[in-house]
C-alpha cells in the first residue's frame, strides 16, 4: 500500500523511502567509497619506516662478526655474551632497573599528593603554582646540571644512584602532577563525601574510594616515569663516575670508541636496552590508553 501511494504521489518522498539502517549509516560513515589501498599504503609505509631500524639493529646483533648478509643466518649470540659479560652490561642493567623503579615510585607518590592538593583544595597561589609547573617544562635538563651537581656535591651524593633518582624525579614531577590532578578531577567529590559521612577520614576515604579509580592514570604516569629514567643519559653521565654505578645509556656510550665502533656489540646492547621498554608497553597498553583518555576529558 505504501508503495502504491508513493507511486500516486499521495505520500511525501521521505515517507516513500524506508529510513537507512544503522548498518548502512556505519558503512557510509566509515569511508566506504575510499579505496583500500589509499588506507593501507600510508600505513604500510609508516610501519616499514618504523620497523626497518629495529630490524637493522637485530641484524647486526644476531649475525656473526664480519658477515655482510641481509638475513641473520646463522644466528649467533656472541655479541650478547660479549656485552653482558665483558662489557659489564649485567651491572648496567641492574643499575638502570634500580633507577627506573625508584624513580617510578617516588614520582608517582609525590605527584599523587601534589595532584590531589591541586584538584581538591583552593589556595591563593594555586594559579601561579600551575603556571610555574607549566613553565618548568620549557627548561632543558642541561640547565639543571650545574645547580644539581653543586647540591649533590654538598650532600656527598656524587657517584650515587640516589642522586640520579632524585634528579629524574625532580625533572618529571611537574608534568606528572598536572596529569594526576586531571585524573583526580574526573572523580566526583560526592564519592569522598559519602565516605566522610560513613565515618572515614580524608586519607582513608582517598585510599578506599579515589585511589582505586586512579589506577589507569597512575599506570600511565608511572610507566612514562620508568621509561624516561631508563633511557635518560645526561644525569647518569654527569653524576656517576665509577663503572659499577653506570646505567645502560652510559654503557652504550662506552661501546663507541674514538677510532672504531663495534657495531655488533653496540646493536646487542641496544636490544638489551629496548627489551624492558617493549615489555612494559606491551603489558600496559590498555591501561595507558584508558589513563590518557580519562585525563584528557573532564567529566
Describe this entry's structure for a reader.
- Residues 93-284 form the ABC transmembrane type-1 domain.
- Residues 1-32 are annotated as: Disordered.
- This protein has 299 residues and is mainly α.
- The longest helix has 34 residues, at 263-296.
- The radius of gyration is 28 Å and the shape is globular.
- It starts with a helix and ends with a helix.
- Helix 9 runs antiparallel to helix 12 and helix 10 (189-197) packs across helix 11 (202-213).
- The protein contains 15 helices and no strands.
Instruction: Estimate the strand proportion.
Output: under 5%
Gross geometry:
globular
Q: Main sheet?
A: none
Count of helical segments? 15
Total strand segments: 0
Intertermini distance:
50 Å
Q: Share of helix among residues?
A: over 70%
Write the element-wise H/E pattern from the N-terminal end onward: HHHHHHHHHHHHHHH
Structural class: mainly alpha
Radius of gyration: 28 Å
- Give the rounded overall mean pLDDT: 81
Low-confidence stretches: 1-17, 26-30, 295-299
Notable features of this structure?
299 residues, mainly alpha, 15 helices, disordered N terminus, disordered C terminus, transmembrane
Helices and strands, with pairings:
Blueprint: H1 2-8, H2 13-16, H3 22-29, H4 36-62, H5 78-86, H6 89-120, H7 126-136, H8 145-154, H9 161-185, H10 189-197, H11 202-213, H12 215-231, H13 234-239, H14 248-254, H15 263-296
Helix pairs in contact: 4-15, 5-15, 6-9, 6-12, 7-9, 9-12, 9-15, 10-11, 12-15, 14-15
